[in-house]
Design goal:
Helix content of chain A: 25-40%
CATH superfamily of the largest domain in chain A: Zn peptidases
Radius of gyration of chain A: 24 Å
Number of domains of chain A: 2
CATH class of the largest domain in chain A: Alpha Beta
CATH architecture of the largest domain in chain A: 3-Layer(aba) Sandwich
Strand order of the largest sheet of chain A: 3-2-9-5-6-7-8-4
Oligomer: homodimer
Distance between the termini of chain A: 37 Å
Strand content of chain A: 15-25%
Order of helices and strands of chain A: HHHEEEEEHHEHEEHEEEHEHEEHHEHH
CATH topology of the largest domain in chain A: Aminopeptidase
Number of helices of chain A: 13
Chain lengths: 454, 454
């Protein structure tokens, strides 16, 4: 009798698990079919990018995009939609130009972009000799007298050897972020950096820089494209080159703005699952991959749960965060508010790596939860989602980590992202409908699993 | 003593395997670094697509491309380069136009492409009423009298629910291939098919059709874009629509042409490993993804083995096959010749799925060999190559299957391919440098493993 029990139990359990897996796998397919056939994410991205375009937080366009988000969340069937107040920095680019010339040459314009949050030249020409360094080590070897009164040019290239381009971006990131303060403290007039780009074109990339707290100089920082950078380095090896920078960019205090939130109410309890992206973008291009994609994917998930009548246990909440690009104020405010209001959150996922074919989900959570998510891997494999190894989460949801909330980020294929990231080329045309929707599929499927399991 | 031996052996073997894996992993990285940093595949693709452009076999452009391939193989360091003779069909598109009108309406042009290998109207207007069917089942229900003298419009759409788009392509493929003979045999004047496209635009896709052996009618077959197809179906639901087709396309016999072959000689023996793609393309666009990508990736592998001084045991041979698109004559001839010359081949791999980020390797080989390749999976994972489950090989190397040669095909991400496949949009601009090179990396790494193991 005992022997029989032992034999039956695993069979019974196996049968249960098999039936369970089969039901999950059918639900995965329902979500996928609905999005790939009837998904509205791509058309929503078209109206966001083409009717509104880029939308730096603090701008009029950003405020327009909050109205757009409210409308799209309502259309998707949200039970409740609201705006969450948040103070954001107001940075304005204004006019900008950079010219270079050799000793006896003529001024030649270079394609450039002031870095976000940078101060400008207040509309005056700032002229100086360019001093070239390859990297921080070379810069550190320069004495103050070698830097003083000069414009320092950092030509640190994206390391093409990284397979995941985000790692190359991380590797080169400090030059955009910090070079101005390094050089300012040694008396430089401005810095020019090589764009953080995986491409070999001449497109300049903007992006956030910051001044060190003890940096009182706040010198201007601008980026040039890879081609211009290579040519400039080459010229500087044989002769002196001078630069003339003129820019109006400046920080203009703060302003009241909003994140946009929509949700479908939980059927079992009111604890919250967040899915989101950031609604703001840099002030060039159309903010299509960064991060229009994450916004329309998140709305797509809400629409699909509603349309399929999936009875979610917990509240599923779409958060369109304000001000990721130059302050992360939306993300910080959201975490602050849920703590203040004592709102229980069981999970948050963000999509902010572009609307490219998804390949995995990055996880920031306890080892136990991590293992549990990884145990669902076979359900995801038919959708091309194979990598659950990365450990990072989107900047907007990161502030929730200290509250002990399990976090995740969609991991799209990374090869094309840093060709267009923070540039004029980040447009709707660069987004593929199916790739975009498959990102929503993967996140929707994960939310379905989390909702029924946690 | 026995116990000790048993314990030591696995330890020793484990250490050996670990050292071996480490050496392989270092070689994988050398191949990857060399290609991503110094790779010439992208610039080679630029000259192939921009200086020569599309190159249907039998055309002058195709012959130019064979000279280009000879030169590029020499530049890459091939020990030996030659052209292999092959007779190819000569199909010419000529002029083509399709107009439609409702009963009392005016003629309106539709964007269209004659299907490859199709006969035309010999330059005369062929007018008839359009009869719409959704699929083959609906067509089979039509009587001869309902089809006779009409132009049949098959509007079978790409099934968006497939995750791997090649499966949707396979599902819809028979309409392009066979609809003309189905309809011709029932007395139709021509067929219009909806393009095999994953996009929702209005771009027509060409591609090979064929007439059944018992089809003496050989009626013209043309493709229209998805948008036109949807609009036409909509109109046909409420009123009669007439079409006027005029086209000159026709098959003009055969012609002597060439595949192009280059190799680096084996250091241990002369048995051959083939890596290739097809040099011909359809006569629209630039044949960039299909299959310029496969050609330049294959040449890249030869260049990299030579540059890194990898001592290949076996001969590594790049084959740029002629006439894949409308005859597969190059592939058939190659298999015929190696059999005739009794040339031992141990492996062949093709890239003909576009120059997109690689995700896996499809395998056609014995279960034992298959398992062996799959046992190398961990070496490939850092490069994003995770899927070794598919069982298919490129059309050009398929004829080698009956010779018992293990075959493989690169599996790139499939989401964007069928938006542009066989269209004017298959241009260099649609190819990303890193994605293209990563395909070469994966194939180069696999060839390294096969070369040392088989």
């Amino acid at each position: 009798m005992k022997l029989m029990l032992i034999k039956i139990l695993p069979l019974f359990l196996g049968g249960f698990l098999f039936a369970q897996t089969k039901a999950d796998s059918l639900q995965f397919k329902r979500i996928s079919d609905e999005m790939l056939v009837n998904g509205t994410a791509y058309e929503n991205l078209r109206t966001l990018t083409k009717n509104i375009g880029h939308r730096l937080s603090g701008s009029e366009a950003y405020e327009k995009s909050t109205d757009w988000a409210v409308q799209k969340l309502k259309e998707a069937g949200a039970d409740k939609v609201w705006k969450e107040e948040v103070m954001v920095p107001v940075w304005e680019r204004g006019k900008q130009s950079l010219h270079i010339k050799t000793q006896n040459g003529k001024w030649k314009p270079l394609r450039m972009l002031s870095l976000g949050n940078s101060e400008g030249t207040k509309g005056k020409d700032v002229e100086a000799e360019i001093i070239f360094v390859k990297n921080k080590t070379e810069f550190n070897q320069l004495s103050e007298s070698q830097v003083k009164g000069k414009i320092i040019f950092f030509n640190y290239a994206f390391d093409q050897r990284f397979i995941v381009t985000g790692q190359a971006y991380g590797d080169a990131g400090m030059y955009r972020r910090s070079a101005a303060s390094w050089a300012g403290k040694k008396g430089a007039k401005a810095v020019i950096i090589r764009s953080l780009s995986s491409a070999f074109d001449d497109v300049p990339h903007t992006g956030a820089m910051r001044y060190d707290k003890d940096d009182t100089t706040k010198i201007p920082a601008v980026a040039i494209g890879p081609k211009s950078a290579d040519e400039l380095e080459k010229t500087l090896k044989t002769q002196k080159v001078f630069a003339k920078l003129n820019s109006n960019c400046t920080m203009k205090g703060e302003k009241l703005s909003h994140s946009v939130i929509g949700e479908i109410t939980g059927n079992k309890d009111q604890s919250v699952i967040v899915v989101g992206g950031h609604l703001d973008s840099w002030d060039v291009g159309e903010g299509a991959h960064d991060d229009g994609a994450g916004i329309v994917q998140s709305i797509e998930i809400l629409r699909t749960f509603k349309k399929l009548g999936i009875k979610n246990n917990h509240t599923i909440r779409v958060v369109c965060f304000a001000n990721e690009e130059n302050g992360v104020r939306g993300g910080n405010k959201y975490a602050e508010n849920i703590q203040k209001n004592n709102e229980k959150h069981i999970f948050a996922i963000e999509s902010d790596g572009g609307g490219f074919t998804p390949r995995g989900i990055a996880l920031v959570m306890s080892p136990e939860k991590r293992k549990e998510v990884q145990s669902w891997r076979n359900l995801f494999l038919p959708y091309g989602i194979h990598n659950f190894e990365f450990q990072y989460a989107g900047a907007d949801i990161e502030p929730m980590e200290k509250l002990g909330i399990p976090l995740a980020e969609l991991v799209p294929d990374s090869q094309r992202y840093f060709d267009i990231h923070h540039t004029e080329e980040d447009t709707f045309e660069k987004v593929n409908r199916r790739e975009l929707l498959l990102g929503a599929v993967a996140m929707g499927q994960l939310i379905y699993m989390v909702d029924k399991s946690w």
